[in-house]
């Protein structure tokens, strides 16, 4: 289906070689962006010339998505994880910053989905599980969120719908006319895949030597999922690169001052494969519908990480969680088995051992924001009433 990964790429290779590959891939990506930019400029000029010599005038605009469909894991889940007594995101102190009570988000407040939806001018899409419990048969106006915390591309140790099952759920809504093909044609898909598959693999096998082959299988299936979403009729599919997994408070070193080098090495390998898969997919579509939201770069920028070590940033405790211990857990007497930091709004990037705080997600979103117009908005042509002679508008 896809070419095998070049034999020169190896998890066992020295870190320097991985950095070299990462830099090389980034340089290639920048070259592609330059070429695409030049092409668009030529397109604009040629269309402007055509408009001046034709009785028909066409306007090229950046049309924003009208709906957001979300698939993935806890970095995007806003309430699909079931609200049982044992459900962490439905327990205090989760949700303490937003909306003020536990809401099923794996943070003290807003997560990636909320910020992307806000950027698009949409309300955060309703969790699919909540929609099902409501018994409604009408669509939710701003889209639907199918992401489920702890799940992955493959089966994980969490008993929840893997990504393919989440995609199937949207297909079922379309077959029932809850959403139409027209709805999908004016929407965006956000897909997160941030490490649950690797955690499950390592817990089950504990063999780093097999990670390379697993990463190839994982990214291959992930690319199939992305293709499936697009072929349902969604014109733009944004998938996240993995965050620096070795910098999460759990995998980080015991001193919490350094990132785990092996974890970050796996992440860079995964992201390089993902970039290759996405490039291969886009090769088959002139519209290049698949884009990557680079969480790795956004996290390292927010934490000022260099050589697997965080530098000076706006966060006083960059690799320490605000909620320490067994966050959200109380013993049989009701005593908390966790403590919460005093300054969660400024000092801490991470909320718990895995998930960013609301301020952490805001920092990630701020790092991503400059790239979002080019990534998330699709140019469309339409024929409006005749504009003034020789008019041609390109709206950002």
UniProtKB/TrEMBL annotation:
Q: Which GO terms describe its molecular function?
A: hydrolase activity, acting on ester bonds
Q: Which InterPro entries match?
A: GDSL, SGNH_hydro_sf
Q: Which GO biological process annotations does it have?
A: lipid catabolic process
Known Gene3D superfamilies for this protein? SGNH hydrolase
Sorted alphabetically, the keyword list is: Hydrolase, Lipid degradation, Lipid metabolism, Membrane, Transmembrane, Transmembrane helix
A Pfam family? Lipase_GDSL
Q: Where are the transmembrane segments?
A: 27-46
Q: Which family does it belong to?
A: Belongs to the 'GDSL' lipolytic enzyme family.
Name of this protein: SGNH hydrolase-type esterase domain-containing protein
Per the UniProt record, the source organism is Cuscuta australis
Lineage per the UniProt record: Eukaryota, Viridiplantae, Streptophyta, Embryophyta, Tracheophyta
């Amino acid at each position: 289906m896809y070419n095998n990964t070049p034999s020169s790429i190896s998890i066992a290779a020295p870190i320097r070689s991985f950095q070299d590959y990462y830099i090389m891939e980034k340089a290639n990506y920048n070259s592609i962006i330059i070429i695409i930019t030049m092409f668009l400029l030529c397109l604009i000029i040629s269309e402007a010339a055509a408009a001046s010599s034709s009785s028909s005038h066409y306007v090229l605009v950046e049309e924003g998505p009208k709906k957001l469909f979300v698939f993935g894991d806890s970095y995007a889940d806003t309430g699909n994880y079931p609200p049982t007594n044992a459900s962490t995101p439905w327990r205090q102190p989760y949700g303490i910053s937003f909306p003020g009570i536990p809401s099923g988000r794996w943070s003290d407040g807003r997560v990636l989905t909320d910020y992307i939806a806000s950027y698009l001018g949409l309300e955060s899409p309703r969790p699919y599980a909540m929609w099902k419990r409501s018994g409604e048969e009408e669509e939710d106006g701003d889209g639907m969120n199918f992401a489920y915390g702890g799940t992955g591309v493959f089966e994980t140790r969490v008993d929840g719908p893997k990504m393919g099952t989440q995609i199937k759920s949207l297909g079922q809504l379309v077959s029932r006319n809850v959403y139409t093909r027209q709805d999908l044609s004016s929407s965006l898909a956000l897909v997160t895949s941030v490490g649950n598959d690797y955690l499950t693999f390592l817990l089950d096998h504990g063999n780093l030597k097999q990670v390379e082959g697993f990463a190839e299988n994982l990214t291959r299936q992930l690319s199939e999922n992305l293709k499936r979403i697009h072929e349902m009729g969604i014109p733009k599919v944004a998938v996240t690169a993995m965050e620096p997994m070795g910098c999460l408070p759990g995998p980080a070193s015991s001193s919490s001052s350094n990132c785990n080098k092996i974890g970050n090495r796996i992440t860079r390998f995964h992201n390089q494969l993902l970039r290759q898969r996405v490039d291969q997919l886009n090769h088959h579509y002139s519209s290049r519908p698949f884009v990557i939201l680079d969480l790795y770069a956004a996290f390292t920028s927010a934490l000022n990480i260099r050589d697997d070590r965080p530098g000076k940033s706006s966060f006083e405790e960059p690799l320490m969680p605000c909620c320490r211990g067994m966050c959200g857990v109380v013993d049989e007497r009701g005593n908390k088995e966790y403590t919460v930091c005093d300054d969660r709004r400024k000092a801490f990037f991470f909320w718990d051992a895995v998930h960013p705080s609301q301020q952490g997600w805001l920092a990630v979103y701020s790092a991503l924001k400059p790239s979002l117009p080019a990534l998330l908005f699709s140019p469309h042509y339409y024929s409006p009433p005749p504009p003034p002679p020789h008019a041609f508008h390109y709206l950002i």
